[in-house]
Amino acid sequence: MADLLHYEDFTVGKSTDLGAYRVTAEEIKSFAREFDPQFFHLDEDRAKSSVLGGLSASGWHTCGILMRLMVDGYLGRTAGMGSPGLDEVKWLKPVYAGETLHGRMTVLAKRQSKSRPEMGLVTMRWEAQSAEGETKIDMTGINLIKVRQP
Fold this sequence. Notes:
Strands 1-3-4-5-2 form a five-stranded antiparallel sheet, with helices on one face. The chain is of the alpha+beta class. It has one domain (7-146): Hotdog Thioesterase (Thiol Ester Dehydrase, Chain A, Roll), CATH 3.10.129.10. It is 23% helix and 34% strand. The two termini are 15 Å apart. It has four helices and five strands.
């Protein structure tokens, strides 16, 4: 598995582009019907008069989109060992139908586990921005990544 990214391959301060994802009205409504059935995620006309100003994706939906970008951007080719979870999730701006989100990952910190030296803990920040550069979602958390040489 030498071709996989390992703990040693992640550098504090380095940012990586995670690619892009176009959000459609159909998927916003589909996700909302199943998991977050609030009117501003389901009804385009009513959503216009909401605080969001139009049909917008659920924050949980945007988390899922960013997760997809993470897997495609680096996790799918990483010697991952899971995650203890997220430290913070911020939904900063609505994500509207027709927008294209661009993902970015930045390594904030890293350390090798003392109790499990084969495992590294890499603290990361993940963001998705609109084509205009507006940050829509900002998350921080930890990836557990196999150490190549414990």
